[in-house]
Structures are given as structure tokens and as C-alpha cells.
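hi support,

uploading two proteins for the ticket. first:
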Amino acid sequence: MIHLTNVTKEFDGKRKVRALDRVDLHIAKGEMVSLVGPSGSGKSTLLNLIGTLDKPTSGEIVLDGQKLSGLADDDLTRVRRDKIGFIFQFFNLLPSLSCLENVALPLHLRGWKRAKARDRASELLDLVGLGKRMDHLPDELSGGERQRVAIARALSVYPPILLADEPTGNLDTHTGAEVLSLVRDIHSRLGATVLMVTHDRSVAASCSRTITLRDGCVVGDGTA
């Protein structure tokens, strides 16, 4: 499902920084994998490359059988839109839109008719336990509820790949555990391939496999 071969990413500034150094990584369809490592180890860079938000300096990335190298920006946008769902630490919900409207927005951008998009958004909010909060604005929700809305939005097109960047990092311990349980439940129901960046050992331990990065290199890859 996710294959990286000899992937390197360098950033140019006053001096060249190598954020990832010849990374080889293979994640099978349906796996739930955590990505750990100290700050500056390359975790977010790796997630951005897999999510097509950035391009590697060298090496090859293949998602769901499709090579990313050589794809035009419009084609990369389509890959991101159709195959990848993102869950962010800080939710990134639009404050002026209701829960239903936030979840339906990606579908409207894909050209779905209003009624169909609202039906799918309603279905997903029910799935994450917010069926009674659909008309509420983000500011009227708790942190955990906002993260649930963000998860529902990420799942709007039932993507085969779900990328999560510290999904529990902005939540208290109890709420974080609830959100993690929800992600695991959705993974089980929908069979999505999940890659989750985390600093939380308990979150990492809940995944079937943990990949450790340090100084831009994979230094550990173990199963639970």
C-alpha cells in the first residue's frame, strides 16, 4: 500500500539540511503503524511526503500501486483527494461552518451534489458518535469532539490511507484515549491503512507495528 525506496529529502537554506536519508519503508494494506522518534528526526517530513504535500529530493514513493514521481501537481492533488485522509493535531476546522458543513466540504470540492454530500457527512458524524451535534459550530464543542469531527472529515471519501499527525497530542489523557479507540475502531471497520505520528508511548503501543526515526533514518521497525 505504501512503499518508499531510497527516499531522501533535503532542504536548502543557509546550509543544506538532510531531513530524510535514504529511507526504505513498506507498509502493507490494512496495517496500523505508529511513527515515533525525537523532535527533528524527520517524522513530519516523512508524513508530508507520503501525503503528497511535498516531494522527495530523490527516491521513489508508491501509494496504492501508483508511482508519485513524475506526476504533475494536478495529478498529485487527485491522489491526495481520492486516496488519503489527514487527521491533524489542531483539528483545522473552519470556525464559521457547522460540524456537518466541515465534514461535507471535501465532498463539495469534489463536485458532489449538496444532498449527497450532506447524507455522507451525516453518516460519518453518526459513525464518530456526533449525530446529535451536527449543527454545532467547532467553538461549541470540546477538544475531543472537534477531533472526532476532524476524523469524520478525513474519512469523507473513505480513503484507503489515513495519515494522522499527533491526533491525541492536543487532548487530555482520557479524551486522547477515546480518540485513539475511535481511530482503532474505524481502522477495524473500514480496513484503511493507518500511519500515525506520535510522541505518546501508549499510542504507539496500541498499533501493531512501530517505526522509529532518528536523524532522518529508520533505526527501528518492530511489531507489537
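and the second one:
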Amino acid sequence: MDSNFFALISRMRYIERWSLMRNSIHENIQEHSHMVAVIAHALGVIRRDVYGIDCDPEACAAVALYHDASEILTGDLPTPIKYHDDEIMSAYRRVETIASEKLLGMLPEELQAAFEPILTGQTQRELHPIVKAADKLSAYIKCIEERKAGNNEFLNAEKQTLEAIHAYNMPEAEYFIEHFIPAFEKTLDELGTIK
């Protein structure tokens, strides 16, 4: 049986994020998912190695890689619409579930058990907050990059996103903000490239 699964996954690069905003730096869900996976892995390592809480950073990264996979079929619904009210949010979650199940059904049967918990959101519940925080941190970094590019369109989003991250009361996210976010304000020369 031929499978369309990975051919569709590769199309994540065609789904643009931040569609209602004027972007200086365009971002698609493939780029976003990569950054969320990198950050989720880091948060998992921080949870395990700094705070001594059992965590599987590789599982965090895998969940993050696929966290927006359903948007291949649904598109990226703008945040103000998606979170407008409970009824819209509930309906959109149903659509996401249907899209995730459709993607899962495209895999050969012998692979479905491995991908089902990742694609359908049934992964270990302790990973969900890490991926959610990584998703917000990625959005926060995007806002910083837009501001640095002279785009004031993202100033309010930057403030709101940082407040949302702090509201999680997640030590791993606070550690990431303290130790890694300041570097996103630096120029390439300040980051210390090879000379």
C-alpha cells in the first residue's frame, strides 16, 4: 500500500502562520514545528536535569514535531477566531481530531500504533504542558524577531504571549526565558560566530 502520510507532512511548509498580521519574516508551520520541537526538547531536559523531575525530552520533541500536523488539512485558523468562544474552540478541536485521524489512517497499519498517541493528542498528559509552553515560547521568539526587524505589528502579541507563558507557572519555561531568550535580542556578531 502506498502511503500519502509523509508527502502530506512535507506540505506543512505551505501553511503560513500569523495570517492576519503583517509579517517581516514569514513563518510556516513546518518551520514553527521544528522550533517548537527544539524548545520542547530543551524544556524536557531542563525539567529532568535542572529540576529532577522524570521526563523524556525525546518524547517531548516528537510530540512537538507533529503538534500542528492536522493544519495540513485544516489550515491555520487565526488565534482571535480560534479562541473567540468555547463553541468555536470546541468545533475547531473536533475538526482537528478528524484531520488527525485522517492522517493516521494514511499510515500503514503496522505503524499506526506508534503514531496514534502523537497525532491524536493521547500522549502522556505530562508532556502536553511542555509542548504548549514550547509553542508559546516559539511564538514569543517570533514576536521578538519581528520587533527587531522594525515591525511594530507584533508588539501587543509579544506582551500578551509573555504574559501567557508566565501564567503557566512552569519553572522550565521561566528557566528558558532567563537563560536563552536574551540571546534572541543579539546580532549575529554578538552571538559569537566563527571568525
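thanks. also noticed: The chain is about 60% helix and 0% strand.
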